[in-house]
Amino acid sequence: MQLSETIKLYMTNKQKDFITQTMNEYIKTVNSLVFVALNVEPISKYTTADVAANLPSALINQCIRDAKSIIRKYDKKCRKISAQNKKLEKQGSAIRTKEPSVPLLKRPCCYINNQNFRIMNDHIEFPVIIDGRSKRISVRTSLTDRQKQILADARLGTMRIVCKGSKIVAQIVYEVSEPGYPDEGNIMGVDLGIKCPAVSYISDGSVKFYGNGRKNRYMRRHYSYLRKKLQKTNHIDAVIRINNKEQRIMKDIDHKISHDIIKTAVAHDVKIIKLERLSNIRSTTRTSRKNNHSLHNWPFFRLSQYIEYKARLAGIKVEYVDPSYTSQTCPVCGRIHHANDRNYTCKCGFHIHRDLLGAMNICNSTEYAGDRDIRHTA
Ligand SMILES: [Zn+2]
What value does the mean pLDDT take over residues 123-137? Predict the structure, then answer.
């Protein structure tokens, strides 16, 4: 599995200029290659000799690779849309799906493959263009002990130099090996929600609640209030800063919750974690006006991604189950009804905390909705 690690760069002003120029030239080159591929000729056989760009040749190679990958994705999208439109035509519908727009890189960036950068204890070396010539520069960094460990052990992939907010950072992709999956073990159902960020129920009967829904809701309202206030006074930079800060905090919360879930799973010999299939979470969670905002913005997706990749690293399989009625079905008699408050009481006499019911039904669910294979970022 591929993960990535973000590293801060402490550039001198001159280095910053060189890197910025290189990044701008990089996206200009990729965009012009995409233009050529769409309007002039295929670029599948292009080499560095075919590309006139003021860049180190290693970066030109990477530009060609990037442009090819952008074209591949674009072609795939076009094919999908044209198939959709054919179907619409057959059905006699006048509606047509719009053609995808030509993909263009807008944010300055550059990708450098693992042959062309070197990470040392306190600096990174990579090539940039200085006065029309390719030269390696050495930029100061400060790696945490955890990062040093990761980068020393792992097989490294591409390094991406990107703008994050107003800063330029390096993101290094690395490969992590996954342990095999065990044959025997318990099953854990995890229910994600607003009031309770996560609840787990394990087939050995143990139960755990994670996170603090009330605190998260308070925080989101607080930031939303700050945003509105600043928007009114046109403090756009401050709004962006606050958005970034909120995102950072929410990511940290999701990392902590997913970490705790995996810790519990490992302690209880869990071999499979079951989650609700994501697309339906919105429709199965009941809404009220007060939590509407937080509900639709709560990134269940990110949390489930974190759970998924941390599970894979721990040798635990993640499966997605059909979410219909998981919060309404009685696990004893199978009757379906709503819980009106925090407690779920069934006519058969079974009663349970409502948030726990979901996790229990997900754990027991045999409705297998498949697992997905996606790329993750740490
Ligand atoms: Zn019942």
Answer: 92
User: How many A from CA of 166 to the centre of ligand 1?
Assistant: 56
Cα(347) to centroid of ligand 1, in Å?
Answer: 6
Q: How far is ligand 1, taken at its centre, from the CA of residue 176, in Å?
A: 45
Task: Specify if 180 maps to a domain.
Answer: no
Structure tokens at 105: 């890189």
The least confident of 181-185, 253-257, 278-282 is: 278-282
Q: Report CA(338)–ligand 1 centroid distance (Å).
A: 12
Question: If you measure from the C-alpha of residue 185 to the centroid of ligand 1, how many angstroms do you get, rounded to a whole number?
Answer: 28
State the Cα–Cα distance between residues 370 and 372, nearest whole angstrom: 7
Q: How far is the CA of 52 from the centre of ligand 1 (A)?
A: 72
- Categorize the per-residue pLDDT at 239 as very low, low, confident or very high, splitting at 50, 70 and 90: confident
Q: Could you give phi then psi for residue 115, rounded to 5 degrees?
A: -75, -20
| Residues 142 and 196 placed together within one structural domain of the fold | no
Is the pLDDT at 292 greater than 50, yes or no? no
Count of alpha carbons within 13 Å of 3, Cβ hemisphere only?
18
CATH code: domain of residue 298: 3.30.420
Between the CA of 345 and the centroid of ligand 1 the distance, in Å, is 8
Q: Are residues 206 and 334 in the same domain?
A: yes
Question: How many Å lie between the centroid of ligand 1 and the Cα of residue 329?
Answer: 8
Q: Is residue 149 part of a domain?
A: yes
* CA distance readout (Å), 46 to 33, 36, 113, 158, 204: 10, 11, 18, 21, 59
Q: What is the pLDDT of residues 73-92, one digit of tens each?
A: 999 999 999 998 998 889 88
